[in-house]
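fyi for ur records
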Amino acid sequence: MGVYDILFAAYLVFVNFAAFSLMGADKRRAEKGEWRISERALFLPALLFGAVGGTAGMYVFRHKTKHLKFAVLFPLLAAAQIAAGVFVFIWI
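which gave:
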């Protein structure tokens, strides 16, 4: 395993943790009636290969699960990102 592999793995951990944490933070803010995190900010880490963490956060915190945009796109993004990772791992 090279240094770039380690850096990429660290990046994936970071971006997935960020997506997971943002879902939890937005849920807490929603419950308290505070200023919310924008949907764009919730989607950004998911688009940057953090969809697995975002999807996990969505279901762990039971947040945005009734919003079609999140309930459909987050799991689809997660599946596509996992498939891309498997493809790269196996073929490259």
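Residues 3-91 form one domain. thats all i got for now
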